[in-house]
Structures are given as C-alpha cells and as structure tokens.
Design brief:
This protein has a single domain, classed as Sodium/glucose cotransporter, CATH 1.20.1730. The protein contains 22 helices and no strands.
C-alpha cells in the first residue's frame, strides 16, 4: 500500500508538469532559464517554498528542536522578514535591469571578471556543499522510511548509494530537460502536498500524546517541557538570541535575496507585481513553517523520552510512529518531491550560471540561444553525476547537518551579499573593490572557521559563526567604501531600464509587508 501510494502521487506530479509545460518553448534563453518570464505569484511562492524546504531542513531543524526547543524557529520566522526586504528593495532593481542571473547584475555594476568570480563561487558551493547534502539527507530519509536495505537485501551503505542515484537521476530529468517552468510547476504541486503532509505529522503527534485531542496534546507539551518553548537562545545555543541582530539577518537576506537557486523564481515573474505577490505569499506561509520543521521535534521529546542519541532521527521516527500506514506512502512521496525540488532547483540554477556567465562569456561568445541551452544541459549532466558521486561520502559528516550547512555556506554567502548591497546602494565604488571584498571575505572566513576555531582557540571559546559573518561583512563594506573614496569610478553607475517586464509595484505591498513584520515580532514577544 505504501509503495503504491508513493508511486501514484509521484507519477501524478510528473504527468501534470508534462501537460502544463509541453507547449512551452525551452530552446530560448528566457524560455529555458526563466520560464519565458511568465511565472505568477502563486507559482513563484510554491517554488520558493519547495526549493527551500527539503530533508536537510525538515530532518535537520526538527533534530535541533528535539535538542534545544523552538529557538531554532528563527531560521523560519526571520526568513519572512528577508523576503519582505527582497520584495521591496532588491527585486525591483533586478527586474528593471532585465537580468537572468545575479552575476549578470554584478557585471553591469562592476565588470565581467567580478561576474565570473561570483558565478564560480555559486557553482562550487552548489556542487561541493548544497547538492551533495540535499541528496544525502534525502536519501537517508527515504531509505529509512522504506527500509530499502531490507527490501532489496543489501547493506545500508549500498541502499544509500542506490537511493542517492535514484533521487538524483529523477531530479536531473526535471531540471535538465524541462527548464525552470517544469521545475516551478512541479514545485507548486509538491508544495501543496508538503503543506498537507507536513501538517499531518504534528496533528497526529499531538493527538497521540493528547488522547485524541490536539489542544490537550499542546497542553501536555507545554506542561511537561516548558523549557522547549523559550525562543530566546543562550550564548551556547545553536542560535543565540544576539545573532538575530548580527549574522542571522545577513544569511537570510543572502539566501532569499541574492542566492541564484532561490531568486531565479522571482526573476521569472511576468511582472514586478507578481514577483512581489509571490515573495510575500511565501513569507506569510514561512511564518507557519515551525509547525512542520520545529514542533515535531519537540513532540518526539515527549514521545521517545528525552533527547535522542542522534536527534536527526527524531522526525523519521515520529513519522513512522504516528502516521497511519495508508498515509506513509503519500507522505514519503511528498517528502520525495521536496528533495527533488531542492536538488533540481540548484541544478537548474547551476545550468543557468554556467551557460550564460561562463559558456557564452568565455567558451563560445557567438553561441546561439539553442547552442547555449544545449551546453547548459550537458553541464547539468556532469554536475548531477559529480554531486551523486560525492553525496554518499558525507555519511560521516557531524551531527546537526543543517547548522553545518549554514556555517560552510558562509565561505561565499557573505562576500557575495557584501558586493551586491554595496553595488546597489553606491554609485562610485569600483570593480577592484568588489574583487578585494570577495577575496578577503572568502579567505578570512575560511581561516576563522576552519583554522582558528578548531585548532587555535577551540570551538567552545570562539565567537558564534553568525557573529563572525557580521564582523567580516562590516569590515568588507568599510574596505569597499574606502576604496570607493580613494579610487572612485570615473562615472557614476546608472542602472538602465530594459523594459523586459512591467515594474509597477503591487499596490498592497506596503500593508502586507508591515503585517508580516508585526507578526514576526509578536511571535518573539509571546514566546520570550
């Protein structure tokens, strides 16, 4: 029954995606990379949520919540504020310039070399860190839920390899053959399924500990584990409260406002109104995210008695315990869709970066749009194979996979965010300042986290990595501004309006932005 429902839902998503996108052009750059600039707000919101929400987050955050409580919801609630800022400040700038990739904006603002360096940072981060971790965590969850090793009579390691390559192969088909439109449509369908399936886990969990009553289940949790409902993290927590005012918001702004794999959905909007609607709809739903990625971890504390030896097991254990057998296959299919979404979205964005920023810039400058798309697809195949080969090798990665992912991403996230924000808000800072900021940002952060922290000062005596990010961000901004003062551009930068899409803002942008911000602040007041 589980296998049948799993295959049925997965096949349904594939069929709907095929019929919706079969007549869409995927041979032109706009058609393949941006879905023909035709994405609506609902599709953008669904794709944003599914690209973001995958097993490394569902399993990882619930694992941390199992250990520390609701304080980790900062990763969800503050994301809403970052999406509001993106909708108001960044997206209008991007759409006005008619860009397809973030590095293209940097080329217009600085120069071609800055674009290439940034594209290389994105591509290396996706290949070495993001894609392998998504595949590994997803394969681990699916393999555990279906007991793949026992089902086909192989070892756990072999089962992991098989599942990784199965997920990667199917995700590659979506990303490489269908382009952004296919990715976005399948994401939207899976987003609906994930919201339904994800909500079922805490509902059935609360009913299980509340004798069939959800409210009674919440009462039991509050009374038995009050310490788990304090949103203010101590200095030793994975997310200390002070980091909210330093590196946390920087990481969120990078992820939702400048990360190619995410912002590409909004860049494909039919106009600014739809892009802003999509971002704000996703922001509102993101506020509800802790119900799926935090609350189950706390329910597992009560259900399994204290903190688990491996907290990352909390979520799959809870799913197997509380969901009826007939729903396990559906939920596994939804989770499978979330895994595919994060994987194929990163692959699609990597193809976009390689094709437009590297292939057409350095390898074949006179390439036609058809040749550019074909080159991107070939690169996508190579990228997928390399990522699938690396993924099983990270099985011995440290516990707390989500936090580990965020820390490693700091190598390139803060330097890129720095040069984008300085580029937007200044007119005379030159290209050399951007190059120096990227080099110093990557080098200093790497030295800080991978040399000074483990070998010189020790992890227990070292500042939190989010604080380190904030310090380096401020330092690099100052360096760029000093260079801009001492050796400014000859002419002030002026953004050119390409008229690719209508950039009239959504008339309800302000009221919804204020409402979302007030809700986030209220959450912290209530649970502090």
């Amino acid at each position: 029954m589980q296998i049948i429902s799993f295959l049925a839902f997965t096949a349904l998503v594939a069929l709907i995606t095929y019929f919706v996108t079969r007549k869409k052009s995927r041979e032109t750059a706009d058609g393949y990379f941006l879905g023909g600039r035709s994405l609506t707000g609902v599709v953008i919101a669904g794709s944003l949520l599914l690209t973001n929400l995958s097993t490394e987050q569902i399993v990882g955050l619930n694992g941390v919540a199992n250990r520390e409580g609701i304080l980790v919801m900062a990763w969800e609630t503050l994301a809403a504020v970052a999406m509001v800022l993106t909708a108001i400040v960044l997206l209008p700038k991007y759409l006005k310039g008619g860009i397809t990739t973030i590095p293209q904006f940097l080329e217009k603002r600085y120069d071609k070399k800055t674009k290439i360096i940034t594209s290389a940072l994105f591509l290396s981060g996706y290949m070495i860190v993001l894609l392998p971790i998504v595949l590994y965590s997803g394969a681990l969850a699916i393999s555990t839920m279906f007991n793949v090793a026992g089902l086909i009579g192989v070892s756990e390691t072999t089962a992991l390899w098989i599942t990784v390559w199965g997920i990667g192969s199917i995700g590659s088909v979506y990303a490489i053959s269908g382009g952004l439109k296919a990715v976005a449509v399948s994401d939207t369908i899976n987003a609906l399924g994930l919201l339904i399936g994800g909500a079922m886990v805490p509902v059935f969990g609360l009913m299980a500990i509340g004798s069939g009553n959800i409210l009674n289940g919440m009462k039991v949790l509050f009374q038995a584990h009050p310490e788990k409902f304090n949103i203010i993290g101590s200095s030793t927590a994975s997310v200390p409260f002070s980091t909210i005012f330093t590196g946390m918001m920087l990481v969120q702004l990078f992820y939702w406002g400048t990360n190619q794999a995410i912002i590409q959905r909004a860049l494909g909007a039919k106009d600014l109104k739809e892009g802003q609607k999509g971002l704000l709809l996703a922001a509102f739903i993101k506020i509800l995210g802790p119900l799926i990625v935090v609350l189950p971890g706390i329910i597992a504390v009560h259900m399994f008695g204290g903190t688990l030896e491996n907290p990352d097991q909390a979520y799959p254990m809870l799913v197997n315990r509380v969901l009826p057998a007939y729903l396990l296959g559906f939920f596994a299919a939804v989770l499978f869709g979330a895994i595919l979404s994060s994987f194929n979205s990163a692959v699609n964005s990597s193809i976009t970066l390689f094709s437009l920023d590297i292939y057409k810039t350095y390898i074949k400058k006179d390439a036609s749009e058809v040749q550019t798309v074909k080159a991107g697809k070939l690169y996508g195949v190579v990228l997928a194979i390399m990522s699938m080969s690396i993924a099983p090798l990270i099985a011995k990665a440290p516990h707390g996979l989500f936090g580990y992912l965020q820390e490693v991403n700091g190598c390139y996230s803060i330097p890129i965010l720095t040069i984008i924000l300085v580029g937007i808000f200044t007119k005379f800072v030159p290209a050399i300042a951007a190059k120096i900021a990227i080099l110093s940002g990557v080098t200093l952060y790497s030295i800080s986290q991978f040399i000074l922290k483990p070998y010189v000062f020790g992890a227990g005596n070292y500042p939190h990595y989010l604080h380190v990010m904030a310090i380096l961000f401020v330092l690099n901004v100052i360096v760029m501004l000093i260079i801009g003062k001492m050796a400014p551009r000859k002419e002030a930068y002026k953004q050119v309006f390409t008229h690719d899409v209508d950039i009239t803002p959504w008339k309800h942008l302000r009221i919804f932005s204020i409402a979302i911000t007030i809700i986030v602040i209220s959450i912290y007041v209530v649970f502090s």
